[in-house]
Write a structure and sequence with these properties.
about 70 residues; SH3 type barrels; five-stranded antiparallel beta sheet; about 40% strand; globular
Length: about 70
């Protein structure tokens, strides 16, 4: 069962699966209620959670703490 975006915590690490992509992310800061600045732990790029979910959530969407 996926964690809701409003339950994410700064400093924690999560695995996000969406539309066939698997990403390991770390929450760096909270920008709004459901938007966070995140760091991709594989590529070390920084972006927002809204950028990842801009095109919607796929049938395989899952967000879990690692």
């Amino acid at each position: 069962m996926a964690i809701g975006l409003d339950n994410l915590r700064v400093g924690r690490k999560y695995r996000l699966i969406n539309m066939g992509e698997v990403r390991k992310i770390e929450i760096m800061s909270r920008l709004s209620d459901t938007n966070f600045k995140i760091k991709d732990l594989d590529t070390l790029e920084w972006y927002t959670i809204e950028e990842l979910l801009r095109w919607g959530r796929g049938k395989d969407y899952d967000l879990d703490e690692i």
